[in-house]
Design a protein that fits this description.
The protein has 8 helices and 15 strands. It is an alpha+beta fold. A hairpin with a 2-residue loop joins β8 (142-144) and β9 (147-148).
């Protein structure tokens, strides 16, 4: 297994990339700087510049490593074949929450994970405007600003706060999810996986922004490789909707995250009584 690079140096690379390529363009994008790469799926010049810089810096930091970036895969899906190599692979989301970013909404972030052999070894979840950089190493816990992160304690359904997105489901499933959501204290989604993972994990003393659970329909690796390791090392339980473990090489099957397995089962059976994906 690869020797991990210096965690702080990776954090510096992410921060520097954001300062140089992302933040100067925030709320300064022209119409020509934004385009659709698929229906409702935006990419900006900031995404592309951020990914180019992260790709160059991270691959140089760890010689022999490969990079899978969201925009590279959009241009050529065969980039995902790099998972088949024995080399360590960086997974990069150059701007997570691009729709928010392009709309001038402050809820966006950057996600980086280091994977080898289909297993996530380390991850970085960055909220640039909030100045929050969460880091995680497999078996060494999840951390933010020197504080160990933990998931919220389990609670009754009526007290649960979570993140539910109803898009991309067939009409009957979407209607059922909307009805089930009424049983929770709150289930508003942010349209940004980085911020959802920061809400799923937090310091021992809650700040009030934390959530207990999250449901994701799409599970592309750049959205979830870093965050799922962060969640697991913070003590949480997650799995695909059929109950099988999540892996960063997965791209279908949905993903449900909860404080523990008992809460996960309760939520899955409530949200998907027939285990529909």
């Amino acid at each position: 297994m690869v020797k991990l690079p210096d965690m702080d140096r990776v954090s510096e690379i992410i921060r520097e990339t954001c300062e140089i390529e992302v933040l100067p363009r925030f709320r300064h994008l022209s119409a020509q700087d934004v385009r659709e790469k698929g229906p409702g799926d935006l990419v900006t010049v900031a995404d592309e510049a951020s990914e180019r810089r992260l790709t160059a810096e991270l691959s140089a930091l760890l010689p022999g490593s490969l990079v899978i970036g969201e925009e590279a895969v959009a241009a050529d899906p065969r980039v995902l074949d790099r998972f088949r190599d024995d080399a360590p692979v960086w997974i990069v989301d150059p701007i997570d929450g691009t729709f928010n970013f392009a709309s001038g909404n402050t809820c966006f972030g950057l996600l980086v994970a280091l994977v080898q052999g289909g297993e996530t070894l380390a991850g970085w979840v960055y909220d640039p405007l909030g100045g929050r950089m969460a880091t995680v190493v497999k078996g060494q816990g999840a951390w933010l600003a020197g504080n160990r992160l933990t998931v919220r304690a389990a609670a009754p359904l009526s007290e649960l706060r979570g993140s539910l997105t109803f898009a991309n489901y067939e009409a009957s499933t979407r209607q059922h999810l909307e009805q089930a959501a009424q049983k929770f204290r709150d289930s508003a989604a942010l349209n940004c996986a980085a911020h959802e993972y920061l809400r799923l994990t937090g310091p021992a003393v809650p700040t009030g922004d934390e959530i207990h659970f999250a449901l994701f329909r799409k599970i592309m690796p750049w959205d979830h490789a870093a965050g799922t390791l962060l969640h697991r090392e913070a003590g949480g339980y997650h799995a695909k909707l059929d109950g099988t473990p999540y892996a960063p090489t997965d791209s279908v099957g949905g993903l449900l995250l909860a404080p523990d397995q008992e809460t996960w089962l309760t939520l899955r059976d409530l949200l998907f009584p027939a285990r529909r994906l």
